[in-house]
Structure of Succinate-semialdehyde dehydrogenase:
Amino acid sequence: MSSSTANISRLARTEIPYLKNYKAYIGGKWKSAASNTTFPVFNPANGEKLADVSNSGQADVKEAVLEAAQAFQSWKLRTAKERSRYLKKWNELLMERMEDITKIMTMEQGKPIVEAKTEVAYAASFIEWFAEEARRVYGDLIPAPTANSKVVVMKQPVGVAALWTPWNFPLAMLTRKAAPALAAGCTVICKPAEDTPLTALALAQVAEEAGIPAGVFNIVPCSRDNVDEVTDVVMESNLVTKFSFTGSTIVGKLLLRKCADTVKKVSVELGGNAAFIVFNSADVDAAVKGVLSAKFRNSGQTCISPNRILIQEGIYDQFSAKLVEGMKELVVGNGLDTKSSQGPLINEKAVLKVERHIKDSVNQGARVICGGNRLEELGGTFFEPTVLTDVTNEMPVSREETFGPVAPLLRFKNETEAIAMANATESGLAGYFYSQDFKQIWRVAEALDVGMVGVNSGFISSEVSPFGGVKQSGIGSEASKYGIDEYIDLKSVNFGGM
């Protein structure tokens, strides 16, 4: 791996492209917080303050709830074809604004400009997909148990949906929730992460330009100091009938408890601890490429990143050597430098976690064979892509989700042991394995306790494939034809005297 030598201060942008203001978007209007307070947004690559964003509080979110509830009464009555047209226009304009929104994302989140551009296209794919799915929400006619009667199942929008999204994919995680909600006939209130509200505000600006009616799509950015009071407003409101969250398992559990009082329909996508298994029969070169793409995407800051790389003992040394060689192609630097393939971590706290995982694991017998250090010359949030060998399942780097550019390599003897090691976690989001034994492929795909499996591939997420986990990694699925079901209620209508 190498470091980008570009001058970071020269790459800094003091002007945010495209965005006209940094306020909440409520009821079709851009509004300052009722408290008239703001919170700062920083570039993680260099610490530069990018903007001061309106800090929404209770009053602002209560207003957003009322606006969304009022808009729902008319939005749900629009035909599926009408809603589809709005979404298609939204998608079209988002793609037209790709260059500007790409820069916004890189500036506030840090990911390389090429990755950010890919995310914009990825985010748009969900809007395009659900624009089409809006017209395919079909009910059922069920054969009745008695003569002269009919049973019909109607599918209706659940209502106002509150969408809480993370910082690591600030655009795609929002469209993956908002697009099916709007397609189904729901209205939404979105709270982006404090670190990355600008991308969400840009999406709201695109929605406004697309003519999406006032109150249908609302954004309420807030600081960490206000997040509890903002969240409690939607949790306590009977007008908000759906809650969707992507984030940590600890926070997700707390929010699930809060949803219980008003019995909201919920979908949560929580933490992962994905295993990446490489069997003796695997194409080792392909497996190395799979690890490099899946593990080091977004500098390892994705919920489906391989957190434990399990290598069968017959190819362990060969694989580790080729992985280290492949990592020489990774270039660490400011995301605005087009040469960079690895950006900064999101903040100092994230770096400290990576350092702790490496130190504690080394103290228990692991070895660093590549990387392992901050790149102080670039800035305090840049970290070398790292490979650890001689790792065991008991080490912190295996037990906890690292969320950083660290690849821990564990040995296993046989298929049974590999599956046991992979499943030895409370998480069950994603899993990967490489094998050329077709019988083994089927056995392992069935045996892994996860919601998503990559077989001979490091890419498992798209608009057509269900995204979600099992065990403590979440409830419900996003994307695919199943994603719209999270925003729909079933109503059975029984007709007598026919």
User: Anything to note?
Assistant: Confidence is low (pLDDT under 50) at residues 4-13.
